Amino acid sequence: MSRIQLLVATHNLGKVREYQQLLRDLPVDLVSLDDLAITHDVDETGATFHENAWLKAHAYCNLGQMLTLSDDSGLEVDALGGEPGVRSARYGGDLCQSDEERVELLLKNLEGVPWEKRTARFRCVIAICAPDGLEVSVVGSVAGMIQYQPQGTEGFGYDPVFFLPSFRRTLSQLPMEDKNRISHRGDAAHRAITALRRLVDTG
User: Is 72 a catalytic residue?
Assistant: First the structure.
């Protein structure tokens, strides 16, 4: 099977590194938006993770003219009615310019919420498009709790406060191999591998 380029539609280098590990057994060479000098930002106007994943996948597939993988993922906290949800990366708007500031806002909004009510889940939707029109989507998730203080140096986003009871650690405290095995993105990626093999075969 010949190798093929796969555009991972993100500027987030942490996400690219995760996909390099997750998809290492596939005959694909991953490239990012930065590698292709694509600076266009797709407005994530969708009301769901599915809608945003497809908006990005279709747009960047057209721009890059290659097999494209896009995901939309986020944190859903039960005590906050499912927030930040699809706005996870934009939580707090202009007032929050970094992951650390968004985590700080989340913890502030959860002040006074007892441990047993700090349940949450990460959800990830992966959308895959090919220039010839082939496309597929898959969903992954992982459940946990929002702890009171950040811990760990691995990962990004809300990983430092997402506590996994079965590991007694946050996602940021897990080695990359363990995180990729159980994370929402890992779950979705494993589901996507069969579909990607089919799309690569047709390429």
Answer: yes
